[in-house]
Amino acid sequence: MARKQKQPAVVAELGRPETPAETAARKANDSRLYRQRKTVNNLVFSLLVSLGLVLVMVLVVPRGTGGFEDRSVDVAELAEQYAPTAGRALLTPDVPEGWKARQAEVRGSDGVTYWQINYTTADEQYAAVVQAFTADGSPVNETWIAEQLERRDATGAEGLGGLEWTVYDHSDRNPDETNVLFGMQGVSGENTLLVYGTDAPGTLRALAAEVAAQAEALPRAAADPTDPTPTEETP
């Protein structure tokens, strides 16, 4: 007895059986959709795995407990370390409580060696003290001084702490655009002194008076430094 051939199923959308070509097209489309879904699923899975790895790294990598707000250097200790390089005693100003010395080092540029201390004041403002000098004891050039004071114009002069200071009062400027809202420049022996910053003029004048008193009490420079030359300032 002959085996009956199975009749093609009627496709609801067509209302009739599929032709061989339609069957092949349907299977090809189903295969394409399957591959697309698999690609999307793989992409989502990979993204979730990546996010998970990032989270694990954030959780396990050790991080410091303090940042810049906690940074403070020992000015007196650094001044003692740098003194042989500078060939002279270096300033270590007494500053008000709440001030933090963020940086203190000897630098060099344009034939000038200088000891610079950068502070954050109690009012969260910036203040700097600079003690500059040359190898042969000649005066520090005016161009270098102008560069340090952001080429601000002098606005006056006054005596303070036994020294004559040139004053640079630009406190009307935007503090976000300058480090020299107020500055003072004086000379003590072979040392050119700069005091400047963004704090109130009265605060910076008090710092200049302290610097002047200490500068006048410093022993005079030694003959020639024997330690390595100071680090050249990066432009």
TrEMBL record:
Family matches, as InterPro entries: DUF4245 (IPR025339)
Membrane-spanning segments: 40-61
Domain of life: Bacteria
Region of interest called Disordered, as start-end residue ranges on this chain: 1-29
Keyword terms of this UniProt record: Membrane, Transmembrane, Transmembrane helix
Protein name in UniProt: DUF4245 domain-containing protein
Source species taxonomy: Bacteria, Bacillati, Actinomycetota, Actinomycetes, Micrococcales
